[in-house]
Amino acid sequence: MKPIPDHIKENLDVLFVGFNPSIRSSETGHHFANPTNRFWSILYKAGITDRKYLPTEDFKLLNLGYGFTNIVARPTKNAKEISSEEYRLGRELLKAKIRTYRPKIICFVGKGVYQEYSGRKNVQWGKQLIPVISGVVDFVAPSSSGLVRMGIDDIAEIYSDLPKLIPVVNQQRHNSIL
């Protein structure tokens, strides 16, 4: 199985970070490609996108200000197969990407992803009070996996805070430059 490419560029509004690619994502080369994954429906229901995109269109979201990466690049059937060493290396690579590309908001697609990244155990949904990297907002959202027992509307409600947060972060960045 091969890793899939990041879709990332400087100054994105939101960089979505997953655990790692699924087998289906590795096969197709696209993020959140498993047919049971609800990611693309969640983005649409949350008002982040104006329509439901297909996984094969993941690269198109760069033009909307959204990018994709993972904390671990190696595809697996599930996140339980990821070793602590892979998380340690992935955490450092992810921090380097964030420092290089400076997205406004990092949306961790799953509480466990953020816990592995931040080392924090007590995590609430939404914007975190203290970011890991200064000047970049950490936002924790439920995993979009079909294995998650939360209803899609409840998950989309949490994600719907992202489009509201973007203008606030833009204003804060603008004010810090002045």
TrEMBL record:
Its transmembrane ranges are none
Q: Where is the Uracil-DNA glycosylase-like domain?
A: 5-150
Q: Which UniProt keywords apply?
A: DNA damage, DNA repair, Hydrolase
Q: Which CDD domains match?
A: UDG-F2_TDG_MUG
Q: Which GO terms describe its biological process?
A: base-excision repair, AP site formation
Q: Carries keyword Cell membrane?
A: no
Superkingdom of the source? Answer: Bacteria
Q: Where is the signal peptide?
A: none
Do you know which Pfam families this protein is assigned to? Answer: UDG (PF03167)
UniProt-recorded name of the protein: Mismatch-specific DNA-glycosylase
